[in-house]
Amino acid sequence: MAEIEVQTRKWGNSLGIAIPKKIIDQEHLSENQTVIIEIKKVADIKTFFNSMKFAKSTQQLKDEMREGWE
Q1: Domain of 43?
Q2: Which residues, in sequence order, are CB contacts of 54 under 8 Å at separation 6+?
Q3: What phi, psi does 20 have (nearest 5°)?
Q4: Going by C-beta distance under 8 Å and a sequence separation of 6 or more, which residues neighbour residue 56?
Q5: 45 lies in a domain?
Q6: pLDDT for residue 25
Q7: Would you say residue 2 lies in a domain?
Q8: pLDDT at site 39
Q9: pTM over 0.70
C-alpha cells in the first residue's frame, strides 16, 4: 500500500487527482484497474483555530501571560 499527498484539480464539474508514475510502477497499476482510495483532508490551521472558543479574548490572555514575565 502506498501513501501520497496530491493536489485536487478541476476536471469538468468534478475534482480529479493524478497518481504519480512512481506509485503506478510501485503498485503495478494499469489502465482500467479498480483501486480503493482513502481520503484524508489535510487540516486547515485557520479553520481549526477559528473554531476554538475561549472564555477570554486573545488580548486578555496575552496580557495575563505578560504579567508573569515581569
Answers
A1: 9-69
A2: 61
A3: -60, 150
A4: 64
A5: yes
A6: 95
A7: no
A8: 87
A9: no
